[in-house]
Structures are given as structure tokens and as C-alpha cells.
């Protein structure tokens, strides 16, 4: 999109794009959240140092061939239930979920509109790391509070603002008006489909 915009061709994100964020975790328990890399806006690296206060129960469940234990927590405005196994002693899980004495194999919120569950385990087949992609090279680090302020508007809305302020150059006023018209349609569509965020509170 960035390359084509320099040529005067304005594109929108591919509707089939599924990965909307990347979460990176380091050994110190610090989590970094990367904003989408398929937008015209630069990728932001958000430091998220919130800790999840898990309450572990004695309830057990079998997932695949592993015995798992139940844990619950409130995080980002949702009530979560996780099932972890000490048979895989890795304190990690999907998305930002971690901090339990074993790998989280299943986690879901109270409404069950957000759910992650392991399908299988296999050895890594390659050394590919998504953050090696060129679009992450000039990433801008920001704090969670800064991200809260920025995320009051969607990436598409920020993109529209850039068109109004002249940060995006158009060949003609007609091209600009067509671009803005199409962008308004995309913004309305996104608000219809993206109305159930995983984090209700940032």
C-alpha cells in the first residue's frame, strides 16, 4: 500500500487479511503488542506491562493427552477462564495470556465470543519469525497510555485524517474525493464487523 501510494495509486487493506496484530513476549514477562502492518499508518510497538492476576482452582480437564487445571482472571474488561498443563512447563499461552505454571491449552471469555484452543503440537518446521518482515523494521515504540489515546480512532479513521491534512498526496481533487468516499464506506463496514474487541478496556 505504501509503495503504491507513492505512485499515486490508493489501495485499501485486503479484506481477506486475517492477522490484525502481533504479540511478542520476552523472558522478563514484558509483552509488546504490534499494530497492523497492512495499513498505511506506521506500525506501533506498544509496551503492555499489565499483569494478569490468575486464581487457580483444583478443577481438572483432559485436553488432547494432557491433564489441565482451571484458572480464572479478569483482564481488559473481560472474565477469562484458562486451562493450563504443568506437563508442558512453559508459562505462556495465546494472545497476551501467560503467567501460569504451565502452558495454556485453552482460554475463553465469559461470553464465549473469544476463545482459543490448542489443536495440536508439532516441532517447528522453520525459523520464520513474522517480525522479520520488512514492514516491522521502522516500528515506533510507544507506551500503553499513548496507545489508548491513539486508538480512540481506528487505523482507517487516522488514514482519513491524513488525507484531510495533506499528508497523503493526490493527483487531483477528484481523486481525493473518490478516495475519501471509498474510505468512508470501509470505515462503516469495519464498525459493523469489528464491534466485539478482545479487550473492552485498554
Describe, in plain words, how this protein is organized in 3D.
With 202 residues, the chain is an alpha+beta fold. The chain has four helices and nine strands; from the N terminus they run H-E-E-E-E-E-E-E-E-E-H-H-H. Helix 3 packs antiparallel against helix 4 (173-193). The model has no long low-confidence stretch (mean pLDDT 82).
Short description:
The chain is an alpha+beta fold and 202 residues long. It has 4 helices and 9 strands. The chain has a 5-stranded antiparallel beta sheet with strand order 4-5-6-7-8, with no helix packed on it.
What are the SSEs and their pairings?
Blueprint: H1 2-6, E1 22-25, E2 31-34, E3 44-48, E4 55-63, E5 66-75, E6 78-85, E7 103-109, E8 115-117, E9 140-143, H2 144-150, H3 155-165, H4 173-193
**Strand order within the widest beta sheet:** 4-5-6-7-8
- List segments where confidence is low: pLDDT < 50 over at least 5 consecutive residues: none
- Write down the overall geometry: elongated
Alpha plus pi helix count: 4
Question: Any descriptors?
Answer:
five-stranded antiparallel beta sheet; four-stranded mixed beta sheet; 4 helices; 27% strand
Amino acid at each position: 500500500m505504501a509503495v503504491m501510494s507513492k505512485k499515486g495509486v490508493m489501495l485499501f487493506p485486503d479484506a481477506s487479511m486475517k492477522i490484525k496484530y502481533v504479540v511478542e513476549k520476552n523472558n522478563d514477562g514484558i509483552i509488546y503488542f504490534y499494530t497492523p502492518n497492512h495499513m498505511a499508518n506506521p506500525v506501533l510497538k506498544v509496551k503492555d506491562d499489565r499483569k494478569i492476576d490468575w486464581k487457580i482452582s483444583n478443577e481438572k480437564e483432559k485436553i488432547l493427552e494432557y491433564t489441565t487445571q482451571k484458572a480464572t482472571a479478569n483482564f481488559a474488561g473481560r472474565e477469562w477462564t484458562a486451562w493450563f498443563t504443568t506437563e508442558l512447563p512453559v508459562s505462556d499461552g495465546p494472545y497476551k495470556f501467560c503467567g501460569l505454571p504451565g502452558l495454556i491449552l485453552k482460554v475463553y471469555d465469559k461470553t464465549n465470543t473469544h476463545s482459543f484452543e490448542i489443536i495440536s503440537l508439532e516441532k517447528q518446521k522453520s525459523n520464520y519469525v513474522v517480525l522479520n518482515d520488512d514492514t516491522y523494521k521502522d516500528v515506533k515504540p510507544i507506551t500503553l497510555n499513548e496507545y489508548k489515546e491513539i486508538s480512540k480512532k481506528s487505523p482507517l479513521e487516522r488514514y482519513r485524517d491524513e488525507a484531510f491534512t495533506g499528508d497523503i498526496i493526490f493527483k487531483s481533487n477528484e481523486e481525493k474525493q473518490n478516495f475519501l468516499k471509498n474510505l468512508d464506506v470501509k470505515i462503516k463496514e469495519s464498525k459493523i464487523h469489528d464491534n466485539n474487541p478482545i479487550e473492552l478496556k485498554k
